[in-house]
């Protein structure tokens, strides 16, 4: 127990003890946060996927801890709060760097612009999405979560500008260049939600894979993980030097389920300083729509609203 100073205020020793207690609490919280940031995405199953989704947002806790640490007036607390800050910076700052800062490549005449969007079945805006992506300069357009009406609407909207197409199940691909060597992929799901093609550009063939990964639900993500693992096993055997894999992966960049694919392909940074979140469209909290590549040089990558889908569209330009 502490003895109150005259006037009822705590004694200096009591105040010191209170600050020491708060300092210890801050230190423990900071270290736990650092561990979660460093290893949370390595946890398998739905728990790991949940961690992977919230990891970037956990950085918002760091200023709060820093403020509390400053109020304790104990230097040790300030220094320990720096630990999760460094871990967060190592994990996410490299992705935040605008593409133009780390690449001097400029779009040339020999470039290919590709776009992808989950058009949200039942939204009725597949045609609007398709037209918007074409107007943005996409020469190759991938659409996911297509139902029968959306497939017809998109095909009609792109018939003149993108005469070559291939659709399988819930995914479709439209191109200004011929599509060859097309084939459906079930990726272990038992029904088709992915495809593989070659785009016959003036600079040669470019392999393009489109995927609409099975949805993630807590405790029910086996189908998604199977599809991503199957795709990661196929891509390394592609005969073309230039490969693009795009679509709705239903997995964020930090999700361990994407790690095998990320070992084979790279994902360009955004053209602006952002993490490229794509879902939900009105307030994106996660990057689950991706454009991966091998053998190409990205000159731009951005996300934007297209149609009334609950996913933002992703558009990238590569030099061939």
Average predicted local confidence, pLDDT: 91
SS field, number of helical segments: 9
Q: How are helices and strands ordered from N to C?
A: HHHHHEHEHEEEEEHEHEEE
Using only C-alpha atoms, the radius of gyration works out to 24 Å
Residues in helices, as a percent range: 25-40%
Strands of the biggest beta sheet: in what spatial order?
Answer: 3-4-2-1-11-10
Shape designation: elongated
Beta-strand segment tally: 11
Structure in words:
- With 320 residues, the protein is α+β, with helices and mostly antiparallel strands.
- Helices cover 37% and strands 23% of the residues.
- The chain has nine helices and eleven strands.
- The strands form two sheets. It has a six-stranded mixed sheet with strand order 3-4-2-1-11-10, covered by helices on one side. It has a five-stranded mixed sheet with strand order 5-6-7-8-9, with no helix packed on it.
- Helix 1 runs antiparallel to helix 3 (61-72) and helix 1 (12-39) packs parallel to helix 4 (75-96).
What's the structural blueprint in terms of helices and strands?
Elements lengths: L11 H28 L5 H14 L2 H12 L2 H22 L2 H4 L8 E8 L7 H10 L4 E5 L3 H11 L5 E5 L2 E5 L3 E7 L8 E8 L2 E9 L9 H13 L8 E6 L10 H4 L26 E6 L2 E8 L8 E7 L1
Parallel strand pairs: 1-2, 7-8
Antiparallel strand pairs: 1-11, 2-4, 3-4, 5-6, 6-7, 8-9, 10-11
Helix pairs in contact: 1-3, 1-4, 3-4, 6-7
Provide a brief overview of the structure.
The protein is an alpha+beta fold and 320 residues long.
């Amino acid at each position: 127990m502490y003895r109150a100073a005259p006037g009822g205020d705590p004694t200096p020793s009591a105040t010191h003890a209170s600050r020491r207690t708060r300092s210890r609490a801050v230190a423990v919280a900071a270290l736990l946060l650092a561990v979660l940031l460093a290893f949370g995405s390595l946890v398998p199953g739905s728990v790991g996927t949940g961690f992977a989704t919230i990891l970037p947002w956990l950085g918002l806790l760091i200023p709060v801890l820093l403020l509390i640490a400053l109020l304790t007036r104990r230097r040790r607390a300030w220094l320990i709060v720096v630990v999760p800050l460094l871990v967060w910076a190592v994990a996410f700052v490299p992705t935040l760097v605008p593409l133009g800062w780390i690449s001097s490549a400029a779009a040339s005449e020999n470039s290919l612009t590709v776009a992808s969007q989950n058009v949200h079945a039942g939204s009725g805006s597949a045609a609007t999405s398709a037209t918007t992506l074409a107007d943005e300069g996409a020469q190759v357009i991938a659409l996911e979560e297509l139902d029968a009406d959306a497939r017809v609407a998109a095909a009609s909207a792109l018939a003149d500008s993108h005469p070559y197409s291939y659709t399988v199940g819930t995914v479709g691909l439209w191109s200004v260049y011929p599509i060859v060597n097309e084939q459906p992929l079930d990726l272990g799901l038992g029904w088709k939600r992915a495809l593989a093609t070659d785009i016959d550009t003036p600079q040669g063939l470019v392999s393009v894979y489109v995927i609409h990964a099975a949805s993630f639900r807590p405790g029910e993500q086996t189908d998604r993980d199977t599809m991503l693992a199957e795709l990661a096993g196929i891509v390394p055997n592609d005969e073309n030097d230039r490969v693009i894999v795009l679509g709705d992966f239903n997995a964020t960049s930090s999700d361990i389920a994407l790690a095998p694919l990320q070992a084979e392909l790279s994902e360009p940074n955004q053209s602006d300083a952002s993490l490229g979140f794509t879902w939900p469209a009105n307030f994106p909290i996660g990057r689950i729509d991706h454009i991966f590549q091998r053998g190409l040089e990205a000159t731009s990558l951005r996300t934007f609203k297209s149609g009334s889908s609950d996913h933002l569209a992703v558009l990238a330009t590569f030099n061939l």
